[in-house]
Structure formats: structure tokens, C-alpha cells
Amino acid sequence: MRAAQRRAGELGLQTAHFTGRRRWTDAVLRDVVPKARSWNELFDMLGLESRSANSRVAVKANAHRLGLSLAHLNPPDRLPTVPLLAIPTDLNQLRKAAPSIAMAWFLLRGQPVSVPVEPVGYDFVAATSEGFKTVQVKTCVRIDESTGGYLVAIAPRRNHGADRGRLVPYDPDEVDLLFIVDGGGGMYLIPMTVVAGRTSLSLNAYADYRCGGAASLLRTVDAGAASGAPG
């Protein structure tokens, strides 16, 4: 098709009315794009019944080729109803945030980190002053009623084989360090050799391995202060 179009151009023949698999011509697209107020309206004008992502990509590609802007079809970003600084902390997100917190701890101490590109039995590798160390990050938000400390599960569940669903301790030859972030922002760096064979532990018993705190990251700013209103 491209070869035929090029040859037609060399011969001075118009091909704009050829649509290929499209149901509209370039001229129609040029005409309706400025008039449409939404993607659905544009689809209606082009006679497209499909509202799929593929249909939108096809329209975008042809509009881009013709130098047509589609920016007016995208609704404006919804303004937040709460100031960003006043958005409350959601501890359900701690598991997602903890690896970044752990890597920042190492990086701030000049210890480079590397994240594996394939799934392995640890979260990242740190090039520490004691050599390369594999690090597994864990989080906990539940308080152990008997000790008053955070209770953290430090063993993964098997998802296959005879051990399916069972907590199986990490292999100390595979994971060197546990980096734990609790629901209050406390951070712990515990050698795996210290807790080898364990599936859970209460952090009260590991105060000697506390390596700092990220409590300010979990703190919600007062709404009045965040908006600049006098306190």
C-alpha cells in the first residue's frame, strides 16, 4: 500500500480518499476533530461503533500524521479535594513504600543498591562496606498483644508443591539481611543468621537492631497547616 501511495504521488495522483481499513477519510478527520468535544463524540462523527483502546490509538495515529491536536478531547485533571500535604497516611500502602524506604537508607549511607530484573528470593542487593548483601524487606502493622510490640511475619508462603500455603523460613544462604518497617515508622536491619528458621518475630525483642525511623513519612499534616491557614 505504501509503495502504491508513493508511486501515485510521483504521478501526481491524489490518494487522500483511500481509507484502507478506516471508515473515514483524511478530509473527514480534519473536519470533525475541531468540532468534537469528547472522544465519544468524535467516534460518533467518524461512524465508529467500537470504543476500544485500539480504535482510539488508530484515530490518534492518523490525527498525529495529519498534524491535528486531540488535546481538547481529554478532560481536565480533576482537582484534589484535599491538599496534598493533608492526605491521610494509608498503612495499606506501607508494603509498596517499604522497599523504597529501605533502599534510601542504604543510599544515604553511600551504599549502592541494585534491583534484580527477574523475580528472586530477595528485594535488592546492597554493595555495603561488608560486601554485597541481599536484602529482603518486610512490613508489619499488627501489635502483638502479649508483648505490646509489632509482630512481623518474616517467612514467605509456598504457593506450590506439598508445602503450598505453609510459611517456610528464608534460606540464610539466599537472604543476608532483613529490613523491617513497622506501622509506626520504626526501621530494623536484622542479619538473617540471627533469625534463621523463624517464621515470625516480635520487634520488641530486637531493639538492638533498630536502625532509624521513618515516622515523619507516616505522619499526616494538619489540614489547616497544609493549606497555609493560621493555626
Descriptive labels:
nucleic acid binding; 27% helix; 231 residues; PD(D/E)XK endonuclease domain-containing protein; PD(D/E)XK_Endonuc; 8 helices; Trna Endonuclease, Chain: A, domain 1; 8 strands; tRNA_endonuc-like_dom_sf; 2 domains; alpha+beta; two-stranded antiparallel sheet
Query: What value does the average pLDDT take?
Result: 85
Query: Which stretches are poorly predicted, pLDDT < 50 over at least 5 residues?
Result: none
What name does the CATH topology of the largest domain carry?
Trna Endonuclease, Chain: A, domain 1
Biggest pleated-sheet summary: 6 strands, mixed
Which class of the largest domain in CATH terms? Alpha Beta
Total individual domains: 2
Q: Give the neighbour order of strands across the main sheet.
A: 1-2-3-5-6-8
- As a percent range, the share of helical residues equals 25-40%
Run of helices and strands: HHHHHEEEEEEHEEHH
Rough outline: elongated
Structural class estimated from helices and strands: alpha+beta
Assess the beta-strand content as a share of residues: 15-25%
Count all strands and give the number. 8
Number of helices: 8
Q: In angstroms, what is the radius of gyration?
A: 29 Å
How far the N terminus sits from the C terminus, by CA atoms, comes to: 69 Å
- Please state the second-level CATH architecture of the largest domain: 3-Layer(aba) Sandwich
Domain PD(D/E)XK endonuclease: 101-196
Organism: Stackebrandtia albiflava
Protein name: PD(D/E)XK endonuclease domain-containing protein
GO molecular function: nucleic acid binding
